[in-house]
Amino acid sequence: MGGGAGTGLLVAFGLASLVAMPHRLIGLAALALVATGLFLVWLEIGRPWRFLNVLRHPQRSWMTREALVAAFLFPLGALGLWYGHPALVGAAAITGLGFLYCQARILTAARGIPAWRVPAIVPLIVSTGLAEGAGLFLALGALLQPPAAATTLVAGALLALVVLRALAWLGYRAALARDGAPTATLDALGRVSPWLWLPGTALPVPILAAGLVTADFVPWLWLGGLAAFAAGWVLKLVLITRAAFNQGFALAHTPARGAGPAGPPVKPGWTFRPAAVVPH
Question: Distance between CA atoms of 23 and 66, rounded to whole angstroms?
């Protein structure tokens, strides 16, 4: 969660630097979020001092690729903040975008978890990470007062990202409905859906749109940004910790008593009963 929001914040920082360099503390917050996320993952390793093994499989592991991207992300970010040069900041932002993409692909590689393995989760994770970062930029802007031109640019980007995230959510839910998923997964996602639509979309969209049209709403952009950020974190919290049920088992046909015909195939606990059970 920290890695997604942190790289999104770094991308927003890089976008803002195209028109005016924001306060460096915003960039430091972005790097700190990414570092915190990686540190917490390191704590989850059974044998933490074997973490270097993650670098051994770049040809097939998205986690290895994420680690390699991170090796460039922090030096580029530090150099960009130290020198305040838009080119260095932009390079760090592009690297952060690659880091975020690797995170999304790590989820699709978990083939045993239906909520993660669908390809539609990639645009959802990328769009919500970018939206969280842009929203956090506006929220921090209430304290650090970035240049007005930078704030306006990021607010416009966030407005587009919030809409794209909503569309990605619809596509993701449609993919799960089409492919099937554990009922507990869909129940968990159904409970988080109001968070995405109300504070995550219905609240920030009018605030951001008004802030782009009239200066009277600019002081309220932080609220729209904070709502977009919080909704994204709730979404990912549920997606990772509440909706990640494994595939379970499937029966090619249900047994019959006596000499009668066998019953249809079934996946217990799933949202559909397939005509034929195909291993995933």
Answer: 27
Q: Are 116 and 98 in contact, with CB atoms under 8 Å apart?
A: no
Q: Cβ distance 204 to 161 under 8 Å?
A: no
In this predicted model, what pLDDT tens digit does every residue of 220-262 receive, in sequence order? 899 999 999 999 999 999 999 988 888 766 656 666 666 667 6
Encoded tokens for 12: 């927003």
Q: Give the C-alpha separation, 191 to 186, whole Å.
A: 9
3-state secondary structure of 38: helix
Q: CA angle, corner 138, sides to 82 and 116, nearest 5?
A: 95
Phi first, then psi, for residue 121 (nearest 5°) are: -75, -20
Q: How many angstroms separate the CA atoms of 240 and 107, rounded?
A: 9
The amino acid that residue 110 corresponds to is A
Per the CB < 8 A criterion, the answer to whether 5 and 233 are in contact is yes
Angle CA 265–117–233, to nearest 5: 130
Domain ranges of the chain: 2-241, 251-280
Residue 251 dihedral angles phi and psi, to the nearest 5°:
-110, 125
Q: What is the pTM of this model?
A: 0.87
How far apart CA 191 and CA 161 sit, in angstroms, is: 22
> Homologous superfamily of 2-241 in CATH?
Formate dehydrogenase/DMSO reductase domain (1.20.1630.10)
